[in-house]
Amino acid sequence: MIYAVYIISKSGSLLYHKCNLNNTPNTLASLDSNDHLVMASNLHSIHAIASKLARTSQAPPNASIPSSLPGNRSGLKRVRTDLFDIILHQTVTGLKIVLVVSKNNQDNLGHGPNVSIDTANNYNYNTIDTDDYAPQIKKIYSLYSDYVLKNPFYLLDMPIRIPMFDTSIDSIW
């Protein structure tokens, strides 16, 4: 289940965020707009650092497994906690789509570290992949392309304030 959606620009500014208020944990629902800005900038910074540290010339261990989403060949892919996961996908143009999702039922809660970070180079391709959320990410990117980029009044890298886009995002919950 998706708790929240963030769209972060290539330069790291928060363009859009929306929480699923019907099924969001109280802690996420109680965040104010400044907290969302801090979260987006931290994710952008960590992704940039992970991209620089990752060995992009080397293919992932299971390179034969095709990814259904282009982009995000290096850097941060997923942050796992005991309560939720953060899925991050960077498009070819540098736009980042971030999903805060419910904890997977197949994970063992309470065993191992409280937080783990997966980058493109150390990602365990035998576990449930971020590609499980590929349909939702594709839909968000499609809605972004249709309602935001094709809007003649929208300026790139400005916050997204388009009611039709906001309403359409509700279809992914």
From TrEMBL:
Major location category of this protein: endoplasmic reticulum
SUPFAM superfamilies hit by this protein: SNARE-like
InterPro entries found in the cross-reference section: Longin-like_dom_sf (IPR011012), TRAPPC (IPR007233)
Annotated Gene Ontology cellular component terms: endoplasmic reticulum; Golgi apparatus; TRAPP complex
GO BP annotations listed: endoplasmic reticulum to Golgi vesicle-mediated transport
Keywords: Endoplasmic reticulum, ER-Golgi transport, Golgi apparatus, Transport
Subcellular compartments: Endoplasmic reticulum; Golgi apparatus, cis-Golgi network; Golgi apparatus
Origin superkingdom: Eukaryota
Subunit-structure text: Part of the multisubunit transport protein particle (TRAPP) complex.
Family: Belongs to the TRAPP small subunits family. TRAPPC4 subfamily.
Protein name: Trafficking protein particle complex subunit
